[in-house]
Amino acid sequence: MNIDADSDALAARDLLASAAREAGRLALEYFRPGARTSAQVGTKVGGSPVTDADFAADSLLKRRLRDALPEAGWLSEETVDDFERLARRSLIVVDPIDGTRAFVIGDPHWAVSAALVVDGRPIAGVVHAPALDETYAAARGGGATLNGATFAAAAGWPPCAAAGPKPILKAMAAKLGSPLEITPRVPSLAYRLCMAARGSVDFAVAAENSHDWDIAAADLLLEEAGARLIDASGERLLYNARHVRRGALLAASEAAAPRLIGAFRAAIGWRPN
Q1: Chain segment 197-247, per-residue pLDDT in tens
Q2: Residue 77 has what DSSP assignment?
Q3: Where are the alpha helices (DSSP H) in the chain?
Q4: Span 118-140, mean pLDDT?
Q5: Residue ranges of the domains in the chain?
Q6: Per-residue pLDDT at 239
Q7: By three-state DSSP, how is residue 44 classified?
Q8: Angle at 113 between CA 216 and CA 90, to 5 degrees
Q9: 3-class secondary structure, 253
Q10: Counting C-beta atoms within 10 Å of the first and last residue's C-beta, which end of the chain has fewer, N or C?
Q11: What is the CATH superfamily name and number for domain 9-150?
């Protein structure tokens, strides 16, 4: 499949959705609602868990997506990054199980995240939450859907509900002078950002040290839903750089983001260079 940012976004979205659902079905074989996974659990450098299900889903996604998109590079949480991708115009970005800690303990809030990036920005993205039977999908210029139904971000002001780290959200609420209902912790960052995209919260925050595989698919879902994912500079994110770790991020509607950015910067202690 030759990738064309203008004509192939819908086809790429459908490919990502099919592969993500297949990977989700595989992961569900190891998932035990309300109980510990049947998969073997190990620990990565840094202390985060990884399971046989992560590796199995990663292998499936790599096979399906690279076979269909041979010109694209590859970036995944569970694959060693060899930087060969930097020479490619297009890039597949995946997290086979975003929210592995939740997966391990039987919490359904985990997801398969997959995106296709062309020239630094995602043109197709899917976040599939198998245990919740929810599939978020977007193609550049084609809108954002949940299980096939189009959705849009909340545009109300002042914001009433938010998802993310409590210390940051409480500091933002104090700066805004408006109370916030803070949702219970959402283990999958991709899913948390989808909550902001679909308008179930007014905005969402990610603490520093997220990675591109956590956010690339949700970034496009936010954009197609009339929202944006930005860092403290206020700029949209670019992908397929050598460094894939991010600072704190804000996801909010196009209307709300310019009003929230000051409180966000204050809450994370950001200072311009």
Answers
A1: 999 999 999 999 999 999 999 999 999 999 999 999 999 999 999 999 999
A2: T
A3: 9-28, 52-68, 100-105, 166-176, 189-198, 212-224, 257-268
A4: 98
A5: 9-150, 161-268
A6: 98
A7: coil
A8: 50
A9: strand
A10: C
A11: Fructose-1,6-Bisphosphatase, subunit A, domain 1 (3.30.540.10)
Q: Per-residue pLDDT for 114 more than 70? A: yes
pTM over 0.70: yes
Report which of 29, 23, 97 is spatially closest to residue 64, judged by C-alpha positions.
23
Residues 164 and 204 sit within 8 Å (Cβ to Cβ): yes
The answer to whether residue 76 scores a pLDDT higher than 70 is yes
Spatial separation of the C-alpha atoms in residues 170 and 262, rounded to whole Å: 14
> Three-class SS of residue 38?
coil
- Closest by alpha carbon to 89, among 77, 104, 71? 71
| pLDDT in the model for residue 241 | 97
pLDDT digits (tens, 9 = 90+) for 14-40: 999 999 999 999 999 999 999 999 999
Cα–Cα distance for residue pair 58/209, rounded to 1 Å: 21
Q: CA-to-CA distance for 4 and 6, rounded, in angstroms? A: 5
- Residues 207 and 225: their CA atoms lie apart, in Å, by 22
Q: In whole angstroms, give the CA distance from residue 247 to residue 209.
A: 6
Nearest residue to 268 via CA among 253, 246, 239, 240: 246
Instruction: Please determine, looking at this structure, whether the domain spanning 161-268 carries the CATH number 3.40.190.80.
Output: yes
Q: Which of 14, 8, 223, 224 is nearest to 114 (CA)?
A: 14
Q: Which residue has the tokens 């179930």?
A: 200
Cβ burial of 133 (10 Å; 0-12, 13-18, 19+) is exposed
Compute the chain's Rg from CA coordinates: 18
Which tokens hold the place of 17? Answer: 């959705």
